[in-house]
Design a protein that fits this description.
By secondary structure, the protein is of the alpha/beta class. It has one domain. Strand 13 and strand 14 form a beta hairpin.
Length: 332
C-alpha cells in the first residue's frame, strides 16, 4: 500500500490532478528569471559571431552530460489542503571515445509535500507514519489553491536543483583531464562548478533580462549558427560570477524570437572569451540528432535529451492517475 492510499483509507479525499505540461515547461535547474546585470567582456558592444559548422567543430573526446526530471501530482485532499506526491531524479551520462553514453552517477528522491500544520491531526499522523520521505510546506496559501500549487512547484524545483548540484560537484571533483561536463541549467549555482575550466551550463529558458536596447535586439534576432559576444553575469540568482553568451541552434524566422536560442554559462576567465567560438561550434554540433519528441527540442541538446529519456524510463509509474476518469459519473 502506498502512503497516499493509506491516507485515503484514513479519510482523505482521493484526487488525480497532474499539472498540465504547459505549466511545467522550463522547470527545475533550467529556470532563469528576474532582472540581472550583464557587462560586455568581448567587443565594444554586443555583436554576432559565426560559429564553426558541424564538420569543423572540435568536439571533445569524452563529455559528461547532466540533466534531471521532476514529476508531481495532487493525490489527496484533507478538506482544501492538497497533498502532493513528488518525484525528482538526476543523472550524469558520460559519452566515451566511441560516442556511447554510459551512466556514471544518478540520484532520485520520491517524497510527499504537505502543509502539516494545516492537516487534521489524524490524517497528519497517518501521513507522517506512512510517507517514507516528507517535505513540509507553509500552509498560509492553502485557501488559494492556484498560488499554493505554485509554491509546491517551487519546492519540487528546489529539491531537484539540489540533487543536480550535488551530482555536478561530485563529477567536477573527479573529472579527468581534458574531459568536460555539460549540465542542463545554471552553472552559476555551484561555486566549484562555476569556477571549473571544463564545465558548461546550457540554459533553455529566458525569463531573466540581461541585455537592453541594441544588444537585446541583436541577441533575440541572432541568426542560426551564430553566437553573441561574451558578457559577465552578476547578481540575482548568481552566487558566483560567470561568463555567458547566447547561441542560436535553429533559425527563428517563421517561428518566434526564442526558437532555438540557448544561453551558455562558463567560467569567468579570459580563456572562456578566447574559446567561445570553438565551444559554440561544439554545442551547435550537439543539436543533432533531433531531441524529439521533447516539447522544446529546438533548444535541447540531444545528449541532454538522452539523459532525460534514461531518467524517465526509470521513474516510478502512478497507475492510479490513469485509472481515475475525470468524466462525470452518471450512474449508467
Amino acid at each position: 500500500m502506498t502512503w497516499w492510499q493509506a491516507l485515503i483509507d484514513a479519510g482523505a479525499v482521493p484526487a488525480a490532478f497532474v499539472p498540465p505540461p504547459a505549466s511545467r515547461a522550463g522547470l527545475g535547474s533550467d529556470i532563469d528569471a528576474g532582472t540581472e546585470r550583464a557587462d560586455i567582456v568581448e567587443d565594444g558592444e554586443l555583436q554576432a559571431h559565426p560559429v564553426p559548422d558541424r564538420s569543423a567543430a572540435r568536439v571533445p573526446a569524452a563529455v559528461s552530460f547532466l540533466a534531471g526530471i521532476e514529476r508531481w501530482s495532487v493525490v489527496a485532499y484533507d478538506g482544501v489542503v492538497q497533498i502532493v506526491s513528488a518525484y525528482v531524479a538526476a543523472a550524469i551520462r558520460r559519452r566515451d571515445e566511441r560516442g556511447r553514453l554510459h551512466t556514471t552517477r544518478e540520484r532520485s528522491r520520491a517524497f510527499a509535500v504537505a502543509p502539516l500544520q494545516r492537516m487534521k491531526p489524524a490524517l497528519r499522523q497517518r501521513l507522517e507514519q506512512m510517507a517514507p520521505d516528507l517535505e513540509p510546506m507553509d500552509g498560509d496559501l492553502v485557501e488559494q489553491p492556484a498560488r499554493y500549487l505554485e509554491r509546491v512547484e517551487s519546492t519540487v524545483r528546489r529539491v531537484r536543483a539540489g540533487i543536480e548540484r550535488e551530482l555536478a560537484d561530485a563529477c567536477i571533483a573527479g573529472l579527468p583531464p581534458e574531459e568536460w561536463l555539460v549540465l542542463d541549467g545554471l552553472l552559476s549555482r555551484s561555486p566549484a562548478v562555476a569556477r571549473h575550466p571544463r564545465a558548461l551550463g546550457v540554459i533553455k529558458s529566458h525569463g531573466a533580462q540581461f541585455l537592453e536596447g541594441r544588444g537585446l535586439e541583436r541577441a533575440l534576432t541572432l541568426p542560426a549558427g551564430h553566437r553573441t559576444s561574451v558578457f559577465a553575469v552578476r547578481g540575482g540568482h548568481t552566487r558566483t560570477e560567470v561568463y555567458s553568451w547566447y547561441l542560436r541552434l535553429w533559425p527563428w524566422e517563421g517561428n518566434d524570437l526564442l526558437y532555438g536560442l540557448l544561453r551558455v554559462e562558463a567560467r569567468a576567465d579570459r580563456e572562456t572569451v578566447a574559446r567561445a567560438t570553438e565551444l559554440s561550434g561544439w554545442l551547435w554540433a550537439e543539436r543533432a540528432p533531433l531531441a524529439t519528441p521533447a516539447t522544446r527540442w529546438d533548444r535541447l541538446l540531444y545528449p541532454l535529451h538522452n539523459v532525460e529519456e534514461y531518467l524517465s524510463a526509470l521513474a516510478p509509474r502512478q497507475p492510479q492517475l490513469r485509472r481515475v476518469s475525470r468524466l462525470p459519473k452518471t450512474g449508467t
